[in-house]
Amino acid sequence: MTTSQINRQRGRELAILGGVCLAAGSMLLVFDVWTSGSLSALSHSWLLGFAFFWSIVLGSMFFVLLHYVSGAIWSTVFRRVGEMLMGAQRLLLLAAIPLVIFMVYNDVFALFPWLDKQLVSEHKILTEKSSYLNLGFFCIRMALYFVLWVGVGRIYLKSSLAQDSAAHPGSLTGLRNASGPLMFLFAVSITFASFDWFMSLDPFWFSTIFGIYIFSGMVLSSLSVITLTALYFQKTGITEKNLITSQHLYSLGAYLFAFTCFWAYIAFSQYMLIWYANLPEEAVFFTLRLHGGWLWVSLLLPVLRFFIPFFILISRRAKMNPGLLTLASFIILAGQALDLFWIVMPNVQRFGMLHLTGSLGSVVFFTGLLLVYIRSFSKKHNLLASNDPKFTESREFHL
Amino acid sequence: MSSCKGYIGLYDSPEELLRAAEAVRDAGIKKWDCHTPYPVHGLDDAMGLKMSPVPLIVLFMGGVGAGVAFLMQWWMDVIDYPFVVGGKPLFSWPLFIPITFELFVLFAALAAMGSVIWFCKLGRWASPLHQGSVMKDITSNRYGIFLDSAEADFNEDKARSLLEATACQDIRRLGGEA
Questions:
Q1: pLDDT at residue A2 above 50?
Q2: Which three-class secondary structure state does DSSP give residue B172?
Q3: What is the pLDDT of residues A359-374, one digit of tens each?
Q4: DSSP class of residue B39?
Q5: What is the pLDDT of residue B177?
Q6: Mind telling me how many Å the CA of A123 is from chain B's nearest CA?
Q7: Mean pLDDT, range A187-191, rounded to an integer
Q8: DSSP label at residue B50
Q9: Residue ranges of the domains in chain A?
């Protein structure tokens, strides 16, 4: 354990960078509201940044649960990084409070159109959906999601940290047994959360594949952050050197590559089915995004999310190269931000404006929050689950 | 006296095999191979294997498959039998993507299978390794290093002494009686 406690003082730049991001993000958000005078843009921007943070945190939950449910050995050296990110659930809960405020004062912030009573009464389709889409039930569902996520995050992190100082570390059988059912609950919760938070931004529109679409971006962004964080910890000497071998990098790279293809598969399936059937209530989503400035965003999206990462990561050598893997991770994270921007921002009430500054500000703000969180966690806790019985085997993992 | 086809050294554990493979690699032998009952981790490095050409062949053939599929559908739907379906334009490329993807996968998979069979030299009638109980031992619990007599400056004494230097207890000469 001594090895992983070395150099705890390093990594101050994370706090500095995080602080700069928080300040710059807030300034951009204020600037956007000040120039556009649109509080609807503010609420949508906040939702966008929140979604960016959410996908990293919840994707890490998937990573940790998958580690347990599959009994994986190789990922033991990355498990604590995943648990650390998953432990940011409480920050996520704090970031959700403004969303509730936006919804309560929906007249000003205009976040979800289904909160507008007049609009709902004018459209039969919305009136019939209102038994599901109403403020009370929405908040109950949101509370249930957070009970599950915060609970799982705390329990898995605490048990894992307790293992570090245990005299006879077990193999965390309880967590392993719980991970299967929790994986099911995870899938249900993120599917409904994506329906609630993102699909209902346009309450007329629906897509049954939407939950999986959000899930694929979620796994990609959390894997990128796990890769970047683990490499950063190793490079700055916060964890020991030479821990992550080319074999570990290959596994992470293959994981990223697989989900890059998965995203393309889901995104294209969604597009093609809606394009082919061409039903007005479904096609409206793409009609909006294939005209005006949004057309360029729609064209950039597959390039940034699929083609560039695909061709970077396709070769075996690239998957083992820390530099190229870092580059791919940053591109994938940028793709995730663009994807969420593309989902959320076309719904801003003032049609035709991209609200770039506010969106950028919100993503930068939440990136800063994540950096500050990582720094404060790394000061307090062990960053490797080095007492786990599988740790040594994971270190020596060979394909 | 028939000609010698090579020498095989049989080991009892993967660790011994890995050590021996490193020695053979460092001796600069080109035509040799390891035979094990299951995949041994780290053997690629111990043997000093270079990157296999299979991935490039697979990528190329996958591209050929995608191109063939896309052009085929374009020719069928736009040139050969233009037929408007659902009010869509004749050249509706999103419709071509699923089959393009499927043929990409099909060509890539067949190329992978074919090239692996080719590079593993499968499908021959006979191999010197089928002599005696060599393959029976390798497919149950032994780990073998085969030195091929096709090596440029192959010499029976040299091959034998190289295997002896790796502390091999069971060295067998393959191909005819000495």
A1: no
A2: strand
A3: 999 999 999 999 999 9
A4: P
A5: 58
A6: 29
A7: 96
A8: P
A9: 3-395
Q: Which residues, other chains included, contact A85 with Cβ-Cβ below 8 Å and sequence gap of 6+?
A: A56, A57, A60, A222, A225, A226, A229, A370, A374
- In this predicted model, what pLDDT tens digit does every residue of A276-307 receive, in sequence order? 998 988 999 999 899 888 899 999 999 999 99
Whether the ipTM is more than 0.95: the answer is no
Of B42, B51, B94, nearest to A398 by CB-CB distance is B42
- Identify which of A371, A394, A393, A388 has the alpha carbon closest to the alpha carbon of residue A12: A371
Model confidence pLDDT, tens digit, residues B64-123:
999 999 999 999 999 999 999 888 999 999 999 999 999 999 999 999 999 999 988 888
Question: Pick from A150, A152, A128, A132: which is nearest to A141 by CA?
Answer: A132
Closest by CA position to A80, among listed A382, A365, A379, A326: A382
Q: Chain A residues contacting B, CB < 8 Å? A: 268, 271-272, 275-276, 278, 314-317, 398-399
How far is A196 from chain B, CA to nearest CA, in Å? 29
Q: Are A354 and A129 in contact (CB under 8 A)?
A: no
pLDDT tens, A12-71? 888 999 999 999 999 999 998 888 878 888 999 999 999 999 999 999 999 999 999 998
For chain B, give the mean pLDDT.
Answer: 89
Token digits of residue A181: 């059912």
Handedness of CA A353, A356, A357, A359 (dihedral sign): positive
Taking only Cα atoms into account, the Rg of chain B, rounded to an integer number of angstroms, comes to: 25
A271 and B94: CB-CB below 8 Å?
Answer: yes
The Cα A174–Cα A273 span in angstroms is: 42
State the pTM of this model: 0.88
Candidates A74, A268, A290, A311: best to mutate against B (most CBs of B within 10 A) is A268
H or E element in which residue B147 lies: strand B143-148
- Where are the domains positioned within chain B? 6-51+142-174, 54-119
Nearest chain A residue to B50, by CA? A317
Listed in sequence order, the DSSP H helices in chain B are: 14-26, 43-47, 54-74, 93-119, 134-138, 156-165
Fold of B6-51+142-174: Alpha-Beta Plaits (3.30.70)
Among candidate residues A103, A180, A111, A181, the one with its CA nearest the CA of residue A141: A103
From chain A, pick out residues whose CB is under 8 angstroms from the CB of B88.
276
Any chain A CB within 8 A of the CB of B136? no
Around Cβ A352, how many Cβ atoms within 10 Å? 10
Structure tokens at A256: 């990223």
